[in-house]
Write a structure and sequence with these properties.
There is one protein chain. The chain is an alpha+beta fold and 327 residues long. The protein has a domain of 182 residues: Nuclear Transport Factor 2, Chain: A (Roll), CATH 3.10.450.50. Strands 1, 2, 3, 4, 5, 6 and 7 form a seven-stranded mixed beta sheet that branches. Strand 5 and strand 6 form a beta hairpin. Helix 2 packs parallel to helix 4, helix 3 packs across helix 4 and helix 7 packs across helix 9. The radius of gyration is 21 Å and the shape is globular. The N and C termini lie far apart (63 Å).
């Protein structure tokens, strides 16, 4: 009987793949917390059974098999994680009261650094960013779990149909059929995994500076000029979503607790391969955590903002809970 490897030996070989496995579980689950738990369980199961690993596939492929199976088992008892615009309701009236839906398991944003989208390898960064974009992960949540797994394994990880069939204990014919249905359902969704975002242009970076200035000076007119005509603004756990620059401007003017210039502070971070900001609200002589915004561009204009009020989100992104009043 072969000897079970030590913790050090197993981790030396497997630990470099932890971030990409976290990205995989995040795509499947739409939750950073669930993904972290499932990656931990994947490593525990792999260590327990490593003495039976015969090397018929690479260690990386074997770990992905375990992680995918863990995700599918978890999804048997968990619903999808939407964003408000994915609930099927029409766009909301900006002046209407906000309705909080704390019972909904909302999609969670993920820091780039947790999933390998903030490293030094340009090719790896592009691959990671294009497959964790918020719109793409949100679209995946609408697929049945097995279709979701097939699409991720085939279109994101570029596995062969026979490899996916082995993981799902099915046939290549069934895998190809599921992939066709999954692609058809996502055909109208932009972006797709084959539509890489690329780095921000100089014009987009300038727009981000204008976005920060508009919020921090509480200039609603300047803010609405930065959005596309079809831009969407949504704020889980509130179930409303708002379409178009005028609606977004009215939403901010009606519901933002800021009273005027200087009441908000925005600190840049990266989430889901996209620009993001930790937003702070003035509280006496300092600023306290308020929400995290994730932005997406269409050319030079902003087409989507998701604003998250999830407890603990600032800590996940390495942001302090309080910010100084002086810049």
């Amino acid at each position: 009987m072969s000897k079970r490897p030590s913790n050090e030996e197993f981790l030396r070989q497997a630990d470099p793949m932890r971030r990409e496995l976290l990205a995989h579980c995040y795509r499947m689950m739409g939750s950073v917390h669930d993904a972290e738990d499932l990656v931990q369980e994947t490593y525990l199961r792999a260590w327990r059974h490593y003495d039976g690993f015969e090397g018929r596939s690479s260690l990386r492929t074997w770990l992905y098999r375990i992680a995918t199976t863990q995700c599918l088992t978890a999804l048997d008892s968990r619903g999808r994680r939407p964003l408000p615009a994915g609930l099927g309701a029409p766009a909301s009236e900006p002046a209407a009261p906000l309705v909080e839906r704390g019972e909904v398991p909302w999609l969670e944003p993920v820091p780039d650094g947790m999933v390998g989208a903030g490293g030094d390898d340009p090719a790896a960064i592009v691959t990671a960013r294009e497959s964790i974009r918020l719109a793409f992960v949100a679209a995946l949540q609408h697929l049945p779990p097995r279709q979701r797994a097939v699409l991720v394994l085939r279109d994101v990880l570029k596995w062969r149909a026979a490899e996916v069939a082995d993981v799902l204990d099915t046939t290549t014919t069934a895998v190809n059929s599921m992939l066709q249905r999954a692609r058809a359902q996502l055909a109208q969704v932009s972006p797709s995994p084959d539509d890489p975002p690329g780095p921000l242009t100089a014009e987009q970076r300038e727009q981000l500076d204008r976005y920060v200035a508009a919020f921090e000076s509480y200039d609603i007119g300047a803010l609405v000029d930065l959005f596309t005509k079809e831009a969407v603004f949504e704020m889980p756990p509130y179930d409303g979503w708002y379409e178009g620059p005028d609606a977004i401007g009215r939403l901010v003017a009606t519901h933002c607790p800021a009273k005027g210039p200087g009441d908000l502070r925005l600190v840049p971070v990266r989430a889901n391969g996209q620009p993001a900001f930790g937003m702070y609200l003035r509280d006496g002589g300092a600023y306290r955590e308020f929400a995290l915004q994730v932005l997406d561009f269409d050319g030079p204009l902003i087409r989507h903002v998701a604003m998250f009020f999830e407890a603990g989100i600032f800590a996940r992104f390495g942001l302090p809970l309080r910010a100084s009043a002086s810049k």
